Amino acid sequence: MKTVQLLIICICFSLFFNYSLNGQNQKVPTNATIKSNSLYFEAFGNGIVYSINYEHLFTDNLGGRIGFMYSPSLDIIFTSTKSFLTVPVILNYFIGENHKLELGGGIVYVSVAEVSFLGFNDNRGGSAVIGTAVVGYRYQPKYSGFLFKIGLTPFFNQNGAFVSGGVGIGLNF
């Protein structure tokens, strides 16, 4: 229930900023070109731990992204892994101009060579494809090189779901 409430608050917050700032006059340089490509770093988010992402805007409201995360070994609280790889592939829909509500969905390829969790060891490793989504806020001016994003990033498969979050910063070109 708290997750649903947090999701509603994030959506309302994004829409408020979109509509309250949308009325401000913006001067666009005559030689400006729309920046439709982005390269950014995201902590946590759809890459699970982190990811380096490339995104292309097909239209003002529709974009696709692919990311990459690799860690030769990772020790977090009660879990350790070896050769941990994730590749998120996501299609996003944006509402707004510079301040945007970001809604998206896609898949994440996950591969790990070895896992240890609370004393249980699995040396076989394996890989899987899991579903993911994005609901968040994004600041991405059309004519500027700066990008900032924050949002909820749930993961799901046939066994259930897990809600996470992420924050990203990068450049548009």
Major beta sheet, specifics? 8 strands, antiparallel, barrel
Report the count of strand segments: 10
Number of helix segments? 1
Series of secondary-structure elements, N-terminal to C-terminal: HEEEEEEEEEE
Gyration radius (Cα, Å) is 18 Å
Q: Class, according to the CATH hierarchy?
A: Mainly Beta
CATH topology: Porin
The gross shape turns out to be elongated
The overall average pLDDT, rounded, is 85
Percent helix among the residues?
A: 10-25%
CATH architecture: Beta Barrel
Strand order of the largest sheet: 1-2-3-4-5-8-9-10
The percent range for strand residues is: over 45%
**Which segments are poorly predicted (pLDDT under 50) over 5 or more consecutive residues?**
4-8, 15-25
**What class, by secondary structure content?**
mainly beta
Please report the distance between the alpha carbons of the first and last residues. Answer: 40 Å
Number of domains: 1
